[in-house]
Amino acid sequence: MAAYGIDVDILIVGAGPAGLAAAIAAKEAGVDNLVVLEREDNPGGILRQCIHNGFGLHRYNEELTGPEYAQRDIDKANALGIDIRCGTTVLSVEADHTVTAVSTARGLEIYHAKAIIMAMGCRERPRGALGIPGSRCAGIYTAGTAQKFVNLEGFVPGKRIVILGSGDIGLIMARRMTLQGAKVLACVELMPYSSGLKRNIVQCLDDYNIPLYLSHTVIDIEGRDRLTGVTVAEVDAKRQPVPGTEIHFDCDTLLLSVGLIPENELSNQAGLEISPLTSGPVVNDVFEASVPGIFACGNVLHVHDLVDYVSQESTEAGKAAAEYIRREAFTGKTISVVDGNGVRGTVPQKILLDEEKKVNLMFRPSGVFEKSQVIVSQGDTVLVKKRSTIFTPGEMVVIPLDTTKLVGDEEIKVAIEKV
Questions:
Q1: Fold adopted by 126-258
Q2: Cα–Cα distance, 310 to 293 (Å, whole number)
Q3: More confident residue, 255 or 1
Q4: Half-sphere exposure for 259 (CA within 13 Å, toward CB)
Q5: Collapsing DSSP states into helix, strand and coil, what is residue 267?
Q6: Helix 307-327 vs helix 66-79: crossing angle, to nearest 10
Q7: How far is it, in rounded angstroms, from Cα 354 to Cα 358?
Q8: β-strands 212-213, 183-188: how paired?
Q9: Local structure of 226: helix, strand or coil
Q10: Could you read off the pLDDT of 254-294 as tens digits, one per residue?
Q11: What's the CATH superfamily of 1-124+259-331?
Q12: Residue 176 pLDDT > 90, yes or no?
């Protein structure tokens, strides 16, 4: 039986670290009538299966495992009496703030919200997106799926493993599978640099003598029923295999760590403008998307490297949503933020000129830049400079911008230049 016309002030889609942080912030800002919808049976999101430590260094100044980090927000949300409805799948989000959801416990429900916060996280890019030749045999998993099997369900997916891609989940699974007794033969990366954090390369590959093949990719998959081997080759500047560089590995498992994509299906349904660079919604500095009253935060907005940053920006989104339902709109001029040399996917893409404030500009470099600096400018006026010995795509760059330094309403450009 369907329940129609459930009125809420704020509806949050997702109870991972982004949704929980946003809900806590909105509740503490005085919003009592808010609901969090989560499709999994428990809150916490992907952190539930991330049993390694390294979380919370920025937010709590201590190292926590993923479940420990998530539990702190879960406990706080419960203490505040936040209504988290697990086992609930959101079917649609409309531009008029109508949300349709379904669950075993409550059936079909239709919500009418004054504001919506999109916090659905991201998903892994599957084999079908890669175009690798070979049979469709068993033994090929995304790294996150393998992580769930091992850490939550107690299954080891294989004994001899090759990992394609050097994203953080893939690097962490190289260590995890080694500790489970498997033999990780190699980590293979298409690009000439790793897409993971440097600390994960050291702690997960170097410490276990697992070789990292940069500028290499898998060119063939062997096996009829179960994977029996893969062939790897070096690639040239155009990312095409170089004849004569083939390396064969006898293995029963291939793990794919080849990129994360924001879960943007609901964002598309709601008519939100999507950035071709981040694959997430285009937002302003209060994380409001192109449809008024719909906000986005966390990995559904852009893929982060640290959960601490997810919580930080989601807290701001929760506060902004609470402010929105009091004001009924954010008004005023906006300035566009554009990418310059070496910069890919700066968030936010717009800044509201409604008050003086500090805004964190976040982006990933488009490549590896040594002895360089980030320059934030408006026309000929330099607003911020930040130097570093190295900028890499594996680590997000955060640039604080004081809006009192803005000169007019000309667009803001973010670029990397050699020192």
A1: FAD/NAD(P)-binding domain (3.50.50)
A2: 20
A3: 255
A4: 15
A5: helix
A6: 20
A7: 12
A8: parallel
A9: strand
A10: 999 998 999 999 999 999 999 999 999 999 999 999 999 99
A11: FAD/NAD(P)-binding domain (3.50.50.60)
A12: yes
